[in-house]
Amino acid sequence: MIKVKNLYKSFGSLQVLKGVDAEIKKGECVCVIGPSGSGKSTFLRCLNLLEQPDSGEINIDGVNVMDTKCDVDKLRLNVGMVFQHFNLFPHLTILENLTLAPLKLKLMTESEAKKKAMALLERVGVGDKADCYPNKLSGGQKQRVAIARALTLSPKVMLFDEPTSALDPEMVGEVLEVMKQLASEGMTMIVVTHEMGFAREVGSWVYFMDEGVVSEDGTPKDLFENPKNERTKSFLSKVL
Amino acid sequence: MVNFIEDFKFVFLEGNRWKFMLDGLKITIGVSIASVFVGLALGLILAIMKMTAVKKGKRTILSVLANTYIDIIRGTPSVLQLLIMYFVVFRSRMGVMAAIISFGMNSAAYVAENIRAGIMAVDNGQMEGGRSLGLSYGITMRYIIIPQAVKNILPALGNEFILLIKETSILGYIAIYDLTKAANYITSRTYKMFLPLIGAAVIYYILTKILSIGLAKFERRLRESD
Prior knowledge:
A: alpha/beta, B: mainly alpha, 9 helices, 83% helix
């Protein structure tokens, strides 16, 4: 589904990604863990070209993303993204947040878009908030709306960039629950997270990133119980 | 007190001199309103030219042009701009038109900065949120960024209008009888300095005060809808 080879990215003189390789199969829920500044988020943002990689290969569902002829906007229809800070549109109601993209891109009629949006909002448990504005919602509700919004275009892959890091601790569970459900339905997911419990329980494969490379990867069981790399060991000993 | 009333009658009522003030006020307000629209239209174009650099991540020909224009306008006195527009460009004809264009061009430089700052003040996550949904830069700008930026920009535009009203007091330089020039004219006719000048100042003050109170109310309403 997704193949990444030798991905490099610098911000000015700061080299963030130094040759990342990854392969993600359809239906997998891949968790990316690692210390701050290791390039996890940058890696994720390169996958839908929110950051333009310097070099390397990215292939998503048979499309060479790095090709200059690749239609970025089309690619993003297949790659949904959920951000740490939700990035809901504050001037639009929850329902409008969901229907804006399908309507402006003329992918659905208004009634279709509304129907789909309501179904998604019900699914993430905020159906009753459809006509509210985002600032009336709690952090957890906002993030669930953001997940629903990313799903309106029926993407093939979902990217999660630390979806629970900006939440109050008591809100984390409800968001992870929605993600868990999504994973169990067979959505291909890449989740950058500090929630080790989630990675362990829901993740089908875990990448440990450090200093711009994937320094270890494996099944959650192997990686959490028998880390081979010294850096992985010391990181896990600190967070677990 | 009696003296004051006598003076007041002499300065403003005799010979219907208050009509000069009223006509001057009309010119002041008319030129200000017309200039603010010219400034807005031109400022929007300049802001878009400047923003091309933000989209590309580096300077563009358009952004350099806009920046140079803004730099020159801000670096020269508006009286001189007015004189040049009237005497050089318009060859001493159509004074009001020359004034509107001159003030409009001057205002545009500041308006462009306001618009740009208002757009930049919208969190970058909004652009990313829109783009991540497959929306183009243009659609994201139009439906997500601009509606939020308007709330930042409108109060600044109101301030710009208030500044413009005071700025138009230099209209006398090109022999247009605005409020200031009218007051000045009355002093030369009556040899009374105090009442005409203070009177004009009071009128400017009331005018700008009304506007700034209205603006503050408007801003509060904008914030409530957040």
